[in-house]
């Protein structure tokens, strides 16, 4: 039997033999915030939000653009309609090169786009009557606006900064969620290590007591039933050791792979309790409303709903668009003569669209947008209530968690002491094997209950940080450095 116990001890200890790595909960969290798969996914999500905001900001800066047509050659017969309304066929043998340099600026105040441009075109005609002609527009101002009744730029200026701020706060919340995920994996391995240690200790104790029971049975001091019960306890302990070894291996892999460590032989310590600090519901709600991305999300959803209603109202019954242009131009056969005696060119186009008879389509579209807005507002109101309720309940729960932890710790101490006393009394033959097993079960349960209570204590702490984005120990907001992707 001793050889079996020795083999099981070597099997379990093999998990921590070799390149052992000692790691605390705080160290594991710091590693996870830099190397875990969740962090890498978070970086990709944050990068998308970053470039979306950069694109939005750039859209209100002047855009310089060059558009050109490289030599386009055409030698074909085309059908044309002459001044008499007759169709004739004309051969075309020519090439054309043109280019335009434009400076475009979106105007947020009006919702249109202002452009300054210059154009140059050259046409080469081949054949017996070959010639070269030029056309130039040295200066042209153009303003275009798709809708005079709806300014999309105005709404974007309200919404896009909220979207970006929401993404930044989401990044911080997700970093706190990484702390939560790490804590759960850490305690899962810690409990597996403790269970394996308890199982090995119990097996050793059960074997020792079994040997004592065999001697007492030979002396006629205990019945055969008690001896068989003790032997059964030894066999059950062996099975428990084997089962725990598998759970220990799984938990070690889960934590090591999450932290991207080069070894699974991790040695964990039991985290200490935090410094005592008080969290009031009022303070938690105040910080949550100031820091959480949900508060920004509520505002953003309301604005987006109002934007959709404004867009429908602006373009539903009356559609107005504007396109205006002013510039100078010249054309001729000699390039040097193009830049004198310019011709003016100007045009203004106002487009109007009014549905005369649409059988209520416009009204239905407007009513639908308004109904969607009301629904979104109602949903946001409910989300706000649930948001406050979650903070309220978790804060109350946190206030009681330290008391639960103290109770569990005291229960562990009492159960351990009771088992030691019970084991001594069993050796002296004053109690039965049933009483011993009961004390052993209560001792093992109390140890795991303490670890479960300690895990809940730390998980609730990091949950409180995630819900408020506030560090109540350091009394400051939780922040992370802005990440750029240039």
Automatic annotation (TrEMBL):
<keyword id="KW-0998">Cell outer membrane</keyword>
<dbReference type="GO" id="GO:0015288">
    <property type="term" value="F:porin activity"/>
</dbReference>
<keyword id="KW-0813">Transport</keyword>
<dbReference type="GO" id="GO:0009279">
    <property type="term" value="C:cell outer membrane"/>
</dbReference>
<keyword id="KW-0472">Membrane</keyword>
<dbReference type="Pfam" id="PF02321">
    <property type="entry name" value="OEP"/>
</dbReference>
<keyword id="KW-0812">Transmembrane</keyword>
<protein>
    <submittedName>
        <fullName>TolC family protein</fullName>
    </submittedName>
</protein>
<dbReference type="GO" id="GO:0015562">
    <property type="term" value="F:efflux transmembrane transporter activity"/>
</dbReference>
<dbReference type="InterPro" id="IPR003423">
    <property type="entry name" value="OMP_efflux"/>
</dbReference>
<keyword id="KW-1134">Transmembrane beta strand</keyword>
<dbReference type="GO" id="GO:1990281">
    <property type="term" value="C:efflux pump complex"/>
</dbReference>
<dbReference type="InterPro" id="IPR051906">
    <property type="entry name" value="TolC-like"/>
</dbReference>
<comment type="similarity">
    <text>Belongs to the outer membrane factor (OMF) (TC 1.B.17) family.</text>
</comment>
């Amino acid at each position: 039997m001793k050889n079996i116990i020795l083999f099981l001890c070597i099997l379990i200890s093999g998990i921590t033999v070799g390149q052992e790595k000692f790691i605390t909960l705080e160290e594991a969290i710091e590693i996870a915030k830099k190397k875990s798969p969740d962090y890498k996914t978070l970086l990709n999500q944050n990068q998308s939000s970053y470039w979306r905001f950069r694109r939005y900001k750039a859209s209100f800066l002047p855009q310089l653009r060059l558009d050109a047509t490289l030599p386009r050659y055409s030698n074909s017969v085309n059908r044309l309609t002459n001044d008499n309304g007759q169709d004739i066929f004309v051969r075309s043998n020519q090439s054309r090169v043109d280019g335009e340099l434009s400076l475009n600026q979106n105007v947020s105040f009006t919702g249109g786009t202002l452009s300054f441009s210059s154009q140059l075109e050259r046409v080469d005609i081949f054949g017996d009557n070959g010639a070269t002609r030029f056309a130039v527009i040295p200066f042209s101002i153009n303003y275009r606006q798709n809708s005079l009744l709806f300014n999309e730029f105005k709404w974007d200026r309200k919404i896009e900064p909220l979207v970006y701020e929401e993404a930044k706060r989401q990044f911080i919340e997700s970093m706190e969620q990484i702390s939560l995920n790490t804590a759960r994996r850490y305690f899962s391995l810690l409990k597996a290590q403790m269970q394996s240690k308890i199982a090995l200790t119990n097996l050793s104790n059960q074997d020792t007591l079994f040997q004592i029971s065999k001697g007492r049975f030979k002396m006629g001091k205990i019945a055969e039933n008690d001896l068989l019960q003790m032997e059964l306890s030894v066999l059950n302990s062996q099975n428990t050791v084997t089962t725990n070894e598998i759970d220990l291996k799984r938990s070690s892999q889960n934590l090591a792979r999450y932290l991207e460590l080069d070894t699974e032989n991790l040695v964990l310590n039991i985290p200490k309790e935090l410094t005592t600090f008080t969290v009031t519901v009022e303070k938690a709600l105040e910080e949550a409303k100031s820091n959480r991305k949900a508060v920004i999300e509520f505002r953003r959803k309301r604005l987006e709903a109002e934007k959709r209603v404004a867009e429908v109202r602006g373009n539903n019954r009356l559609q107005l668009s504007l396109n205006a242009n002013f510039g100078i131009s010249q054309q001729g056969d000699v390039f040097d003569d193009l830049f004198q005696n310019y011709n003016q060119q100007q045009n203004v186009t106002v487009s109007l669209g009014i549905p005369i008879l649409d059988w209520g389509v416009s009204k239905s579209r407007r009513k639908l947008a308004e109904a969607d807005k009301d629904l979104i507002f109602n949903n946001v109101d409910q989300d706000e209530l649930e948001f406050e309720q979650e903070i309220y309940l978790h804060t109350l729960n946190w206030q009681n968690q330290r008391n639960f932890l103290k109770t569990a710790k005291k229960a562990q101490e009492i159960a351990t002491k009771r088992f030691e006393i019970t084991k001594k009394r069993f050796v002296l033959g004053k109690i039965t094997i049933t009483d011993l097993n009961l004390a052993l079960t209560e001792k093992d349960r109390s140890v795991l209950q303490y670890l479960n209570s300690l895990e809940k204590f730390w998980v609730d702490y990091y949950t409180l940080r995630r819900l408020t984005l506030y560090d109540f120990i350091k009394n400051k907001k939780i922040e992370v450095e802005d990440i750029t992707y240039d």
